[in-house]
Structures are given as structure tokens and as C-alpha cells.
């Protein structure tokens, strides 16, 4: 099934941009839904459902006052800015298209080319490529159109808007670019992932000494996997994807170049029991910690901003056995560390 693409925009023009505008922000040929809206139900005898009704199960997501979204490591990947999905039943599409046509064609302030373009758009679906909005197939399919990701940059959201509404039978996966898939849902779920704040335990606590190894660790159970499930349930299309984040490493940034991290990379791996690093025990002051920092100069009257960021490995599974990896994410906090000189007396 091929949708009407940018080729048709040359003839449809400004009027179709305005068509159906009262209901939503419009694109050339119909409304563009914002991905967080929900609009589905029964009005009279007109069953309708919009693919904007993407629901999120966050019962296994991170929580608490220090929760925050993960940031894609490197920033080279982002969830989709828009996608194509089922939006209207035949009755609903016919009703909204006719209402938009009546509004523009009956407005004396509209330019002639706008009226002409509106007429051409209406004819495409009423007496042209399609017949009478496919009302005779009301229970057999849905009209598809663009949906914008409200979290994406505004200029990127319009990437799908050159595709005009097209018909797809229930259960059919249209052969068009950007058609909604479990993988797209996984990317949207990624945006909802929240993880606990990262505040490592330090020894010595609060104030440490120059050249004295400072131990850092996170206890078992502080960082458990979190997940979000995104679902789309429309007539003939019921898909979902679960995106899961698992802690895989802790990175320490001392806040000054006059310091050494342990290990040298600054990345402390997650232990088999889920903990990170090793708690300090009495008598271990002269040992090199498996996870920690040694400062080589005093912080003076201030503090150093120790950054502790956990890297989260991101995977997803979806309808039909689909699944894979998404880019790792990171989230962390700053911690103030006071470093003092060790005072000695020469006799």
C-alpha cells in the first residue's frame, strides 16, 4: 500500500494545510496528532480510534524525588520525531474532511487557489483515487496519517507530514516509510525511562585528604533494572514494546585534573550481586580501592564537584518476538567533596 506523498502537495496547496484545522494542528491533507494525545471511543454510531492513544505502563519505572531521565550516551541517537499510524475510521475521516471542505469553500475570505486545492483534496477521497472515503469498508480498515512526537525538535517533527492520509486494511502493515512498529514504540518508551539519582557512598565521608585513596561504592539493590512498556491498540493493530534499562557501569569524574581514578578509566563495573565497587573496611586505608579516587591537591576553601554517572544498557522486546539493543544511557549527580592537606610537624 503506497501513500500519497510530496508529489501531491504541488496541487493541493495552502487550502489543504487549513483543511480540518479546527480539530488539530494541520498538515497538507488532515490533522497531525501529537503523540501524547488520547482520542478514542464511540460517538453515536461512529466508532473511532486514534493511534495517538499510545499508552505507557510505568509501573516498573524508576521513582522517587531523585529520579530523572537517562541521556543517550554520545547524543547520536534520538527516538523517532514522527511516524504514520491509523488515525480515523472511514466515517470519521469523511465527516472531518467534509466539515473542512465546507468551512474553506464557504469562506469568502479564502483565495481562489485555496478553494481549488480544497476541492481537489476532497475529490481525491470522495470521487478520485478513493471512492466515498471507503465508507463501504468501514469495518475493514482505517485511514492512516502522520503523528508527531511532541518531544522532538519542531523542525524534525514535520518529516512525515508530506504523506497524505491513506487507507490500510485491518491487520495489514502498510509498505510505507515510518509506519508505526514495535521498534518505534520502543524508542518512545526509551523517552519515558527514569532511573534513580546517583549518589555514591564515600570513605572518608565528606572530607578526604590529599594523596589518601577515597573509596566509592554503591550497595547491592540500589540500582535495579527499570522498564517502560509502550502500547498502541487501534482497530486491526495491537502492538507493544518494552524498553528495559540495566545498570552496567559507574563512571567517576573527580572534578579536577589533579586526581587519579581507580580504575584508571574511571569506570567501575557492576559486580555479580548488583553492587558497584567495594565498601571500605577498617585497615584498608593503604589499599588501592577497586572503585575510587585519589586527590593530589587541596580543594582550598571550596569543594570539588565529583560527578558519579551510572551507564545503563538499554534493550527492548516487542510484539511478534521483535527486539534488540538501543544506545546506552547515562544519568548521574554532582557530589561536593572537600579535600584537605595533611598537616605534619617537623621537630
Describe the 3D structure.
This protein is an alpha+beta fold and 347 residues long. Strands 6, 8, 14, 16, 17, 19, 22 and 23 form an 8-stranded mixed sheet that branches. Helix 1 crosses helix 3 and helix 2 packs antiparallel against helix 3. The longest helix is centred in the first third of the chain and has 16 residues. The radius of gyration is 28 Å and the shape is elongated. It starts with 8 loop residues before the first helix and ends in a 7-residue tail after the last strand. The N terminus is likely disordered.
Describe the structure concisely for a colleague:
By secondary structure, this protein is α+β, with helices and mostly antiparallel strands. 16% of the residues lie in helices and 36% in strands.
- Unreliable sequence segments: 1-49
Helix content: 10-25%
Q: Tally the helices.
A: 5
Give the termini distance in whole angstroms: 91 Å
Counted beta strands: 23
Amount of beta strand:
35-45%
- Helix and strand content put the structural class at alpha+beta
Which H/E pattern describes the elements?
HEEEEEEEEEHHEHEHEEEEEEEEEEEE
How is the biggest beta sheet arranged?
A: 8 strands, mixed
C-alpha geometry: elongated
**Kindly state the mean pLDDT as a whole number?**
81
Overall radius of gyration: 28 Å
Keywords for this entry:
347 residues, alpha+beta, five-stranded antiparallel beta sheet, 5 helices, disordered N terminus
Amino acid at each position: 500500500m503506497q501513500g500519497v506523498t510530496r508529489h501531491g502537495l504541488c496541487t493541493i496547496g495552502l487550502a489543504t494545510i487549513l483543511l480540518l484545522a479546527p480539530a488539530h494542528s494541520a498538515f497538507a491533507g488532515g490533522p497531525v496528532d501529537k503523540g501524547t494525545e488520547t482520542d478514542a471511543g464511540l460517538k453515536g454510531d461512529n466508532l473511532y480510534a486514534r493511534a495517538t492513544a499510545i499508552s505507557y505502563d510505568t509501573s516498573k519505572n524508576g521513582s522517587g524525588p531523585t529520579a530523572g531521565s537517562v541521556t543517550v550516551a554520545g547524543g547520536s541517537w534520538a527516538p523517532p520525531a514522527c511516524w504514520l499510524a491509523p488515525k480515523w475510521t472511514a466515517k470519521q475521516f469523511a465527516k472531518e474532511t467534509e466539515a473542512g471542505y465546507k468551512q474553506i469553500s464557504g469562506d469568502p475570505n479564502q483565495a481562489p487557489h485555496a478553494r481549488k486545492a480544497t476541492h481537489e483534496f476532497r475529490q481525491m477521497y470522495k470521487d478520485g483515487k478513493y471512492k466515498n472515503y471507503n465508507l463501504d469498508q468501514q469495518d475493514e480498515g482505517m485511514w492512516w496519517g502522520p503523528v508527531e512526537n511532541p518531544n522532538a525538535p519542531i523542525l524534525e517533527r514535520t518529516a512525515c507530514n508530506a504523506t497524505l492520509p491513506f487507507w490500510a486494511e485491518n491487520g495489514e502493515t502498510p509498505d510505507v516509510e515510518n509506519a508505526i512498529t514495535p521498534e518505534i514504540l520502543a524508542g518512545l518508551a526509551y523517552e519515558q525511562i527514569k532511573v534513580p539519582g546517583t549518589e555514591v557512598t564515600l570513605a572518608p565521608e565528606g572530607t578526604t585528604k590529599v594523596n589518601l585513596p577515597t573509596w566509592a561504592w554503591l550497595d547491592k539493590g540500589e540500582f535495579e533494572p527499570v522498564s517502560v512498556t509502550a502500547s498502541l491498540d487501534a482497530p486491526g493493530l495491537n502492538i507493544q514494546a518494552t524498553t528495559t534499562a540495566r545498570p552496567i557501569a559507574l563512571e567517576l569524574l573527580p572534578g579536577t585534573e589533579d586526581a587519579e581514578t581507580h580504575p584508571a578509566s574511571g569506570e567501575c563495573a557492576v559486580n555479580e550481586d548488583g553492587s558497584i565497587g567495594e565498601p571500605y573496611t577498617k585497615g584498608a586505608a593503604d589499599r588501592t580501592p577497586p572503585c575510587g579516587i585519589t586527590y593530589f591537591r587541596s580543594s582550598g576553601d571550596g569543594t570539588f564537584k565529583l560527578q558519579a554517572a551510572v551507564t545503563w544498557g538499554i534493550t527492548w522486546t516487542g510484539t511478534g518476538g521483535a527486539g534488540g539493543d538501543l544506545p546506552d544511557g547515562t544519568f548521574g549527580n554532582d557530589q561536593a567533596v572537600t579535600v584537605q592537606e595533611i598537616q605534619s610537624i617537623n621537630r
